[in-house]
Predict the structure of DAGKc domain-containing protein.
Amino acid sequence: MKITVVYNPTAGGGREKLLCRFVAELEKQGARVRLYHTRGPGDATEYLQGLEDQGDCVVAVGGDGTTNEVLNGLAPGVALGVFATGTANVLAKELQLPRTPELAAQIVVNGKNVPVTPARLNGRRFIMMCGIGYDAWVVNGVNLAVKERFGKLAYVQSMLAQIRRYGQRHYRVMVDGRPLDCFSAIVTNGRHYGGSFVLSREANILRPQVQVLLFQKPGVSFLLRCLAALLLGRMERVDGVASLRAQRVEIRCEGADEPIQADGDPAGQLPAEIVMEDEPVPMRVADTFQ
Ligand SMILES: Nc1ncnc2c1ncn2[C@@H]1O[C@H](COP(=O)(O)OP(=O)(O)OP(=O)(O)O)[C@@H](O)[C@H]1O
């Protein structure tokens, strides 16, 4: 098995020792490994697009942002593996991928493929989620120096800083042609959010549709109710949260520039057009995953 490993040395503050153990185990399992260290944002995608032969599998070593960039450079038919060394690692939670390098490597070599269909946000693929409104303000407001030092706490800091803004902006959403309104939206492929929290029990990463969560009431108290429900995995039970399956979503907002986040990183401005791809990507998971 030929494997290309793409490592982001900044994800999770750097995990060189774990990377060495991961690569050593891949080789022990009989894989031929080519290793690449990314040099900056966007480099993983460019590097892969420049390869004539990516091998049987490309493994993203980093967080969700690194996996996103690998996914955007992945050649058709090549499997995608993940060894999670990032801050939140939502995709790894979704696919029940271990953080131990030896176990993660064994899954890459001896596991199975499952079909995961990515969506495209304004032409760029995402694998887990994108969001607008509060969700995007939080991601855009993260202080990178705090994230490097304190990890997930940087998101908590940004969440607190953005709370008062919630409800001030209003969005028009078309969900498979159906017009709806909201004060924030998250479009998700999987169930998890921000690590191990369950955002949507309706979502299924193996289904070629996204789940659209619309936050349809304004007000800080509504937002706080939603955040509490997220901790309990009961978001879809909150009165004022709509949850719909879709293949195509469009989001607009009148007035000033409004940011979007995709897979936990800033991803441009509204308007947003989100469309499911036709073909799934084969993703490496444990044999026991279902
Ligand atoms: N060599 C590099 N130097 C600086 N930034 C990089 C480099 N390589 C990749 N990046 C950028 O780092 C961003 C963050 O990486 P990633 O999301 O994988 O880690 P994380 O933020 O620690 O984890 P998570 O997304 O799980 O919270 C990526 O979106 C990518 O653009």
Summary: The longest helix spans residues 16-28.
